[in-house]
Amino acid sequence: PMAAQAAADDAHPVLMNAGKLSALGANAQAYPLFGEELARVRKSVDAAMKAGISVPVPKDAGGGASHEQHKRNYTALYGAGQLYRITGERRYADFARDMLLAYAKLYPTLGPHPAASNQAAGRLFWQSLNDSVWLVYAVQGYDAVRDALTPQERQTIDDNVFRKTAQFLSTGSPKVFDRIHNHATWANAGVGMTGYVLRDPDLVEKALKGLDKSGKSGFLRQLDLLFSPDGYYAEGPYYQRYALQPFVIFAAAIEANEPQRRIFAYRDGIVPKAIRTTIQLTYDGYFFPLNDAMPDKSLRTEELYQAVAIGYGVTHDPALLSIAQWQKRTVLTPQGLEVARDVAAGKARPFPFASMLLRDGPDGDKGGLAILRAGPGDKDQVLVAKNTAQGMGHGHFDKLNWLLYDNGQAIVTDYGAARFLNIEAKDGGRYLPENESWAKQTVAHNTLVVNETSHFGGDAKLAETLAPRQLHFSGEGPTRASIAEMDGAYPGVTFRRALVQLDIKGLKSPLMVDLLKVKGGKPARYDLPLHFAGHIIDTGFPLQSNVTTRPLLGKADGYQHLWVDATGKPGADNGVLTWIQDGRFYSYRIATPGVTMILGESGASDPRFNLRREPFVIQRLDGATDAAFVSLLEPHGRYDASAETTTGSESAVRGFTHARQGDLDVVTLTLRDGRRVMLVLADDTDPARSHSLQVGGKAQSWKGPVGRFDGEKAK
Amino acid sequence: PMAAQAAADDAHPVLMNAGKLSALGANAQAYPLFGEELARVRKSVDAAMKAGISVPVPKDAGGGASHEQHKRNYTALYGAGQLYRITGERRYADFARDMLLAYAKLYPTLGPHPAASNQAAGRLFWQSLNDSVWLVYAVQGYDAVRDALTPQERQTIDDNVFRKTAQFLSTGSPKVFDRIHNHATWANAGVGMTGYVLRDPDLVEKALKGLDKSGKSGFLRQLDLLFSPDGYYAEGPYYQRYALQPFVIFAAAIEANEPQRRIFAYRDGIVPKAIRTTIQLTYDGYFFPLNDAMPDKSLRTEELYQAVAIGYGVTHDPALLSIAQWQKRTVLTPQGLEVARDVAAGKARPFPFASMLLRDGPDGDKGGLAILRAGPGDKDQVLVAKNTAQGMGHGHFDKLNWLLYDNGQAIVTDYGAARFLNIEAKDGGRYLPENESWAKQTVAHNTLVVNETSHFGGDAKLAETLAPRQLHFSGEGPTRASIAEMDGAYPGVTFRRALVQLDIKGLKSPLMVDLLKVKGGKPARYDLPLHFAGHIIDTGFPLQSNVTTRPLLGKADGYQHLWVDATGKPGADNGVLTWIQDGRFYSYRIATPGVTMILGESGASDPRFNLRREPFVIQRLDGATDAAFVSLLEPHGRYDASAETTTGSESAVRGFTHARQGDLDVVTLTLRDGRRVMLVLADDTDPARSHSLQVGGKAQSWKGPVGRFDGEKAK
Ligand SMILES: [Zn+2]
Ligand SMILES: [Zn+2]
User: Fold this and answer.
1) What value, to the nearest 5°, has the Cα angle with vertex B281 and ends B279 and B287?
2) Residue B664 in 3-state DSSP?
3) Are B216 and B163 in contact (CB under 8 A)?
4) Contacts of B294 in chain A (CB under 8 A)
5) Is B548 in Cβ contact with A605 (below 8 Å)?
6) Single pTM value for the model
7) Contact B646 A423 (CB under 8 A)
8) Element (DSSP H or E) covering residue A629
9) Looking at residues A454-466, what average pLDDT do you find?
10) Is B147 exposed, middle or buried (0-12, 13-18, 19+ CB in 10 A)?
């Protein structure tokens, strides 16, 4: 069918339903989201037109002048195309044409980029990834104006810009193009869309099925392998957001040109599923900063504007409209128009944030991300258990790590990446050396470190071969739990972690119980760090403080980046540390016998001020072979600065103990009002297996690994 | 006239025009601000009624249970009174009555509070200040319900609660009552209002003119002495906010009962002036944290809800309505009703934030606070030069200190007070020892330190005797400047500081030039710290870093609280430090010859984690007798996290030099585009004095101490 179509009309737009947008310009104000976007893009493109066309010879690495100019150019091309379709104003088509004619002169003269480093070199940019992104945007802009050009102009631009770029990024870069990796997705998308625009089915076929068209690589294979069956992307939320864009944009182009492929139904609807999953990976709109990630990244990004619009175009799920409202943005496409129209019509419904286990790995058998939520709101408390596989080169060595969000804030934190994105003075915005020496290391996370070394000895290839096992997940009811186990992060060491979010009657926020058990085979030093956000208010145990000189905690594997402020050895009843964050108190209470607590601050050994400085506490056990770290984190109270009132600054918990009974771990919380809450975790995680226990003189029994028994107030 | 009135009717409300409020309950929703406040107070008072009346025997210090209960009681009494007047619901009057009858039983049995410390002991509270506050609120609540009580009940409460409290706080506490101090204002207000309610002119007279009625103390004298002619309160913005409440509330009561006193016109309208000045002491609604101050204090506080309503009642200035809109609150008084009505009617106008010099001292001759604003918006850039007098016991040793706000953020900062207000575990919420050892010390501020000691040797009494002289102030036009001089902060040392806010064509934000010149008489170590908010991006000069062990900078006067991260000696062209805060870059550039730069972090020597940890840079000159510190602070560029774009991360300034020509200091900025901006500061600050200088081969002349000459681009 494509060939026939091409013969009849080889210039009209194919990447979108341009008819829907035609001459909408005058009426855009009826849909404020669309109208504002139109004004925004018009302002930006008009400014670019006023600045004049600049297509410099490539020279600079990321952040440099020529780099930034080519980035601005693809944005302007894309915007000019949209504006031409919406407003019908010829000057936008002329601008896009003139810029592309300039590229048509430049492009054929280019060899590998002079600033290329160890990444695959591009032509316009220092890495070919940027060239792929350029192509994805530019070809959409071109598609939109192509029917306004003369056949001669089209020929020049087709041949000297787009066909050459597509050739360079496909047959000219086979290692990138045929990889199973997000960089390849961008290349596939750019090349495939170019195929549609140039009416070249061969390019489309290569984009979908790889250079050899076997299907062993290419876009469809990427959809098979880069997402888990639950729509989780292997590299984690930050890159999931980034990776999503070529998937959704190319999918929309495929749907527009070859609906018979039913691309949105492919693999049980993996594309719309991935969009929804991406949104679930946020708190208050910000992505969980797992693996290499910038913590300031939210749903307010170009990728998500596109994803929400395309997702809405496919599903018409009104929950996506509330995300668009939060974003306060949409895109200038027919789908963006639908979003803006339906938001204006009041059709938005709250997005249903939910507890969920997102399995990892193409077959869903490489661990997973366990998300426990206290409610459906985007600011309700969230516990994230990172029981995923390594996630390739951007993965951190943090098996069974966890995060907590509460009261609108990150409380138990992950450093994310050591990087100042796009800031030239910080190594050109690239990952900093401290990303390796600190951010990726295990001690920078909230999980077990054995003998002051990182998981897998910091070997990413080895790490790729092993994943945790999710043994149990229950996301509903008042006792929500994740249990997972990791074997082989250290030779001969197995550790298992139960993280439980407990609703307790009368307490505003759920409490978190954390039971981490390790079997080591031989005596070792076990450290369990907790990185938190807040200011320390109090400790229940005495501290030996390093007041005038703070030693480093160690020499390598991230330990060299930790200052030690103080150490202390809690007794049986006083193992508690309280901090305050945004007016809320957090008490971290431990029942780990024989533990030494190390309080300190990160950011040591950092002569270039590349690191943030943040507080941490470490539970340290020396010389044990097997051990159990038993911890409780309790949010409580409120300090109101404007009313100058404080309520609930004291913990509601009076006692916290752990005991072993047969094959059960029994964790008991005693509240200040005398009530007891008993949480029982069984070694056997079989959901069908029955367990029983004497509780307060009465035999209690239950099925599955998690039991809970709330006692009455003591008389 | 009071006696006659009292004979005719001795029970109707006198502290407010109750008729205006009567039975408004049903219609309150027409004015959302009022309706929301009504709902809020109703919820709070209903909860107090449900909890039942509790009037415990005084026992605890601040933050303890009995303390908090008596605080809750006065709030509930006040609220119940308002609700009775507005809704006419009898149960609110009954609740207030029953609680006051309980106080009538308790109060006569009380002696000095058992938890009294070195402050003047109260009866209900550990310090009598709290008793005064209790009285101010409670007597307003009582006034509102008094006509609903039987004569017998009135008699009991009059005699056993209010007359006794008023006696205790007046004749029973002469040292507090007759002081010229904010604690006395509260006592005066409480006693005076009690006088009106009990129809006892003697109490009113004592409140207004002191116990001996001579006028040497009392409320009017406080109005004379505690505010400067510009409405600036001696202790600084944080306490100005707090102090304002008894002034405005008692003034409103005086106006309601004795309009012939024309209290709002007293001293050229000092009360409404003080209200407006208080609002001017904010950025983005937050008070400048000078002296002992909590940095989280904003216009959203009870004091300012009252002040805005009372100020509006007097002036009907529509700018106050926009403050009420920002506050999203008002009060349940006739004035609050007016505010809510006029806000609902759309009468609000933007509050005109403006550059201004607020003279300090009762006669306006004790220095002043110089506020330079780049525009009238509450987020436009603000430079604050603290050239005020010491400000009593809560004053910091920071003569000629400065602050900068830009882009919605505090950039050049003041630590404020070392205190966790109302947080029991932090010394009961009181000022911490680190308030003396760190927060008050000179090195914790952005001003000159000589020989590592604080101004006046940290002696507050000595500090009280000397104030800076404001030599020049110009708040309008593109070159806004403050010049002030301090003599005697150190024996034999005079220092003068010019702070200039320069608008420069083509640059989005003004630049700050800081010229601090010291004459010492003998060689000394001069330090000029800058405490800033942000993450260091880059330095232009090489650093010697203390990577594995950070030394303390000194041993006393706050130096023991500073870790040294690195030091460096800039050359003539590379003395620049750049940081980023909230996506904006700040380059601090110096032209101080021979200086050593010390980069570090505060928060050392702090075993109890009482301090925040914040970055600083110090310019250090050793062995000079006279010296000039020449600095430039330039906000530039923007990092946009959601678009991942960076613009203007490079400084727009290429050169920055200082030269002395005759009696002129010539500071020259060379921009990257080649333009030159020359700022000339004359020793003679006489506004009428003419100066001249050769600029680019041409003689330029001007009047006054500040000259500026912008050159063209170099050809
Ligand atoms: Zn990480
Ligand atoms: Zn201060």
Assistant:
1) 95
2) strand
3) no
4) 641
5) yes
6) 0.93
7) yes
8) strand A615-636
9) 97
10) middle
